[in-house]
Amino acid sequence: MARQKTIITCAITGAIHTPTMSSALPYTAEDIAAQATAAAQAGASVLHLHARNPEDGSVSLNPDHFAAFLPKIKESTDAVINISTGGSLKTSIEERIAPVLKFSPEMCSLNMGSMNFSFHPLAKRYDTWNFDWEKEYVQNSDTYIFRNTFNDIEKVARTLEPHQIKFEHECYDVGHLYNLRFCMDIGLFKAPIFIQFIFGILGGIGPEVENLIFMKQTADRLFGDDYRWSVLGAGGVQMSLATTASQMGGNVRVGLEDSLLISRGKLAANNAQQVTKIKRIIEDLGCEVATPDEAREILALKGGDKVQF
Predict the structure, then answer these.
(1) What's the superkingdom here (predicted)?
(2) What digits encode the pLDDT tens for the residues 217-249?
(3) What is the pTM of this model?
(4) Which domains does the chain have, with CATH numbers?
C-alpha cells in the first residue's frame, strides 16, 4: 500500500502570542490574508485561522473581523479553511462558535476537554509592550481555565452537524483521547476523525517523543483505522516533533500561532518560512506533501464549494 501523503496545516495567528513578541505576527485582515495565502503557496494545504482586532492585535471573535479576510484567502488559494472554536479563553462556547456557524468552513478546531492553559512565563521576557492589553493578558493566563465540558462539546457537535464540518479534535493530553472515544460512542462524531496531538502547552502533556509515541499508541487502540492524525509542537519543539510525526506516518502543523521561531533563538520572518522549512524536511526524508484536494480526500471533507464565504 502506498504511503499516504503528508498534510501540512499552518496556524496563522492564534490567540496566545501578542504583537510585542514578534513583528511578523499578523493581526490586520490584510496581513492575515497575505500570510495565509503565502503559506498555502509554500505548501500548506490547510489554513487554521483566528481573527484579531485590527486596531490593537487583541483576540477577536467578531464575525466581521473574519469576514474581512476569509473571502480574500478563498479567492487567492484553494487551501482548506479551518476556523478556530478556541478563540478567547474567557468567552462562552456560543461566542466561540459564532464565526464557524456563520461561515460554515470545511473544518474547525474543537478542544476535547477542559484544562489549565497558561503562557504566563512569557510575560517576564518583555519590559515594554506595544499595546496596553498585552501584559495583563499574558500575565493573567495563569488564572485561565480553557473550558470544554462534555456539555460544551455536545453543544458544538449538535449545533454544527447540519454544516458537515470536519473537526480538528485538539487533544492536549491522553484523557482527551478517551473523551473523544466517548463522544464517538454516543454518536457525536463520525469516522474518519482528525486528531491533532498537541505537545508543550503549559497545562497539557509535555513535548517528549515518548509522549508522542504513547498518544499514538493510545489512539490506535481507541480508534483503530477510524482516525487521521497530526502533531503540533509548541514553541521550540515545533520542527523536531513535526519531523518525527511525518516519519511516523502522521501529518504536521506549523505556524506563528504555535511558535514564533524558525530555528533556535531566531524569530521566523513569516508563516510561509515555517511551511517552506517543514515541507523541505518532509520531502528530503522521502515523503510527499498533500495538495489541498488530496487533503480533502484524506480527511473526507465536504469541499470548498460548500462554505459560506
Answers:
(1) Bacteria
(2) 999 999 999 999 999 999 999 999 999 999 999
(3) 0.96
(4) 8-114+149-306 (3.20.20.70)
